[in-house]
Amino acid sequence: MPVFPVLTFLPMSAMILAGAFAIVLLNRYVSTRRRPHELMWGIAFVLFALAAACQVYADVNGIWSPMTARVYYLTGPILNVAFLGLGTMYLIFSRRVANVGLLIVLLLVAISAFVLFTVPIDEAALKQEAGWKAVTTMSTAPRLLAIITNSLGTLLVVGGAIWSGLVFWRKRIMKSRMIGVFLLAGGTLVIALGGTITGITGLRNHDYLYITMAIGILIMFAGYLQTIRPESVAQASLKEAERPQVAG
Questions:
Q1: What are phi and psi for residue 5, nearest 5 degrees?
Q2: Per-residue confidence band for 74, with pLDDT thresholds at 50, 70 and 90
Q3: Burial class of residue 80 in the structure, from the number of CB atoms within 10 Å of its CB (0-12 exposed, 13-18 middle, 19+ buried)
Q4: Residue 110 to residues 104, 105, 117, Cα–Cα distance (Å)
């Protein structure tokens, strides 16, 4: 009979936090001005929640299934940072530039879904604690896609934070939005740090990954709250023409 491991509370906490914040973001998107960055960040938090839910399911059942391993790797290591980066593009760049980013992300989603649901599964690896690695032991394609999407997403989030920070600081405008974007970048790096520590040390999958994920999600949501402060929203409306632009 499946048991409920104590450490399952860690991914469950990340799942609940990410799910709650996704509801807030998506509800605000459909009920207010339908800001694209809120939709993209809402999708990113949904992906966080799905990945953590796969870990909870595997813990309770004592084994990973091929489907949970595939969904976990697709929604966690591959796609969520890409959507965070896309949301940052919609927040600080022109709509035209961000729409190009959307097309690229959608192409990566299609490629990643095809790869993850066709790649061979290492059945023996499913019995391990980090059973999601079953999708990477027989093919390098999933790992390569994770490297590409995480590198691009992190570059957009962190690079966008630095860019917007410099622009907003120089123009003395949208201080709250500047702080919010920096917090979003900081939360992303905290989550990435947990994955790096886990990978380097080989410690239990829960030890750092989901603690840092929960902390990172909280930091990112705090950043989002900064971007919707009345000061930030009002100035953003007044300064729409002064948003950082990229040629193209």
A1: -60, 145
A2: very high
A3: buried
A4: 10, 9, 11
In single-letter form, the type of residue at position 96 comes to: R
* CATH at 129: 1.20.1070.10
Q: Which domain holds residue 190?
A: 6-241
Q: How far apart are CA 248 and CA 244, in angstroms?
A: 13
Dihedral class, residue 148 (left if φ above 0, else alpha if ψ from -120 to 50, else beta): alpha
Residue 199 included in any domain: yes
Assigned domain for 104 exists? yes
Structure confidence by residue, pLDDT tens digits, 171-229:
777 777 778 888 888 888 888 777 666 555 555 556 567 888 889 889 988 988 887 87
Residue 1 lies in a domain: no
| 162: CB partners within 8 A, 6+ apart | 185
pLDDT tens digit sequence for 126-148: 888 778 889 988 999 999 999 89
Count of domains for the chain: 1
Give the tokens for residue 148.
Answer: 């590409």
Helix 230-238 and helix 175-201, axial crossing angle in degrees, nearest 10: 110
E strand or H helix that includes residue 101: helix 95-116
- Residue 240 is encoded by which pair of tokens? 């729409």
| Nearest residue to 40 (alpha-carbon basis) of 9, 80, 97, 77 | 80
* Cβ-contact 13, 214 below 8 angstroms: yes
Q: Is the dihedral of CA 139, 141, 145, 151 positive or negative?
A: positive
